[in-house]
Structures are given as C-alpha cells and as structure tokens.
Amino acid sequence: MAAEMREAGSGVSGALAKVPQVTLVFWIIKIGATTLGETGGDAVTMSLDLGYLVGTAIFSAAFILAVFAQVSAKRFVPILYWLTIIATTTVGTTLADYFDRSLGIGYAGGSALLFGLLMASLFLWHRVLGSVSIDSVRSRKAEWFYWMTILFSQTLGTALGDWTADSAGFGYAGSAVLFGLLLALTAAAYFWTRISRTFLFWSAFILTRPLGAVVGDLLDKPITSGGLALSRYWASAILLAFILACILIFPQKPAEQAH
Predict the structure, then answer these.
(1) How far is CA 148 from CA 67, 151, 178, 182, 192, in A?
(2) Which among 156, 157, 155, 124 has a CA at the least distance from the CA of 142?
C-alpha cells in the first residue's frame, strides 16, 4: 500500500479514483452488464454464426481498446468504466465457450483452469502491491491488475454458469436461483459478520457473472433447452438501455471519495 501511495504521489495521478463506489446501484449495473455479456456474446457467435474463435477475436480487440482508454483516462468516467466492464463480459463469454466447447476442455476443466488463473492473478496482485482491495486501485499498475483479475473472473463465471446449468442439471432457472442465493448469503455475511470485506467483494463480483450468464441463457436459449427463446439482439438492446438509464439516473462517485 505504501508503494502505491508513493507511486500516486510521484505523478501517476491520472489513475486515481477511476473505479466507482460499491453501492447497490453498482451491483445492479454489474448484473445487467454480465447478462448483456452473455446475450451479446451469443448474438455474435451464434446468431451471426461467426463462431467462438472469431467472436473472441472481435471482443478481445474491443476489450483491449476499452482497457487502454480506461487506464489512460484522467478521471472517473462512469460510461467508460461500464463499457470496459461490458467488454470483459462479452470476451469472457466467447473465450469461455471457446475453451469449454471448441477446445473440448469441458465445463469442469474450463472452470478449474480459469479459477487457477483468477487465483494466480489475485496472488500476484497482492504480492506486488500489497492489497487487492478496490480502494487500493489508485495507480496504473493496480489498474492493470484490476482489469486482468476482472477478465479472469468474468470468463470463469461463464464456465461456472454453463457447468451448473448443463452438467450439474440445475437448468437456467435453477442456476439463477442457486447463484442468487449465494449472492444473498454473501450480502448477509457483509452485514452480519466480520469476514474480510475484500474477500466478500471479490466473491460477490465473481458470483454476479454466472448469475448474469444463466439469466442471459434463460432469455435467449430455445424453449426446448429451457430458455425463453427471446431475440438475442432485442435482449441485448434492452439490457444496454437499462444499463445506460441506471448510469444516467443514479450518478456514481469514484471510490476514492468514499474516504
């Protein structure tokens, strides 16, 4: 932490206060973004029939551009931040599907691999900067770790959602209930226990992804597969409009102002 403050004080002020405060609105937008990531990713890979590899290439380019714009920004810009989050969810969707299906790793294998990458990212981040708390994301170095960790968490969430819905037999609706309950337990732990807030934040952040993934699948998968067979394009457009409305109606402050 001291190293981060020294870096901030040495002129890396452009990376300060560029993540939002963690509020109820934050979590609502996050779930909307993860659901959009699923419907948007499926729209490109399935509805447009471009396949997982091409879809991953397209969304990877969008992710790289968004992260560079976010890291280069001089202040917190809510729309830019959430566009970057959406970029991580779409590339996470197509990348997980490519690993699990095209490469034949399977949902369990893909989930295990991605969980290992996520833990390695958090470990390296903590080892280098001393904290993985969202409040410590106040330097460019911390921002790069932050977005790398988010990318792994979003990709893991897709694999977990597919695993519970398909392999574990919960179905889309059952999986949504499962991850909703796990999120509720995480929220209860936040209010009524002394468990590390950083641990609870990342637990909730990870759990919102499979929740959004299975809700997205519930919306756009065929009725014979347990979905509602809604248009992926319309579902994505409505979700994007919902996210933009939340950003405009409920102004967000940068996390640094919480102190």
Answers:
(1) 10, 5, 27, 24, 31
(2) 124
CA distance 94 to 240: 18
Look up the pTM and report it: 0.89
Q: What is the CA radius of gyration of the chain?
A: 18
Backbone φ, ψ for residue 196 (5° rounding): -45, 125
The tokens for 151 are 């990318």
Q: How confident is the model at residue 196 (pLDDT cuts 50, 70, 90)?
A: very high
pLDDT, tens digit, for every residue of 11-35?
344 445 689 999 999 999 999 999 9
Answer for the pair 184, 195: CB distance below 8 angstroms, yes or no: no
Q: How far apart are the first and last CA of the chain?
A: 15
Q: Which DSSP letter does residue 12 get?
A: -
Helix, strand, coil in percent for the chain, rounding step 5: 80, 0, 20
